[in-house]
Design brief:
The chain has 193 residues and is an alpha/beta fold. Helices cover 54% and strands 15% of the residues. β3 and β4 form a beta hairpin. The radius of gyration is 18 Å and the shape is globular. The mean pLDDT is 93.
Length: 193
Amino acid sequence: MIKLGITGGIGSGKSVVAQLLQLSKIPVYIADEESKILTNTSPIIRKQLTNLFGKDIYTENGLNKKRLASYIFNNPEYLKQVNAIIHPEVNYHFQEWATKQQSEICAIESAILFESGFNQYVDYSLIVYAPIEVRVMRVLARDKASREEIIQRISNQMPDEQKKELSDYVIYNDDSHALLPQIQDLLSDLSSR
């Protein structure tokens, strides 16, 4: 089975590409969604976060997101420690999930594919690329955030130019390239490997 990693910055359209792959019968593991579930359900994550921050990091409803945010906001060391707790469990879960798929290709969608090290566990990586201005306009239409907040969020992510250099494939989602032919070319190329 070929494992494909899908990444891209906020507003690039990586979720749209993931959905189109799913429509093409390619199972896609959405790392962001799964990590939220695992953070609430994994006894390993719960124990390690509780050891790091204390019992009040969880409530009866699950992770106390506001408390966690207060710890990691402007504290790169805490953020690094939290990532070191969560990322290995997400990777392990993805690997387990991948073994259960009945297709020649499966994928993981992760905004932080390279930053998390998930790229080491896939055969090929793909970036969904869009110019910053296109991304900003998409996020403005989608989220309740100001232009300045969106630019700040983009600046906190690994630059897409750097991700492009690290990726095996690029899908351009810039409103001038059609997505479906690019996805068909990608799947054809992967199937021939």
